[in-house]
Inverse folding.
């Protein structure tokens, strides 16, 4: 009887632990699936930076043309 009780308690805590691990893995999986919605991909970042650099280059060129030269 004591052996059955010990095995039952051990099985309960083992099942509880496995359940917690499964829930944590599901939360991690959900977080990983949301990453593309939360963070910018490297390719998108590079294309945006290149576009900004192009615009700044045009602005600087126009400013250079407007500078009064002695």
């Amino acid at each position: 009887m004591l052996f059955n009780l010990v095995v039952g308690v051990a099985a309960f805590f083992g099942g509880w632990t496995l359940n917690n691990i499964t829930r944590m893995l599901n939360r991690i999986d959900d977080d990983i699936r949301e990453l593309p919605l939360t963070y910018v991909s490297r390719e998108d970042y590079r294309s945006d930076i290149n576009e900004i650099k192009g615009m700044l280059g045009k602005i600087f060129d126009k400013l250079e043309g407007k500078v009064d030269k002695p």
User: Anything to note?
Assistant: The CA atoms of residues 10 and 16 lie 10 Å apart. The chain has a mean pLDDT of 90. The two ends are 104 Å apart (CA to CA). Residues 2-38 form the longest helix (37 residues).
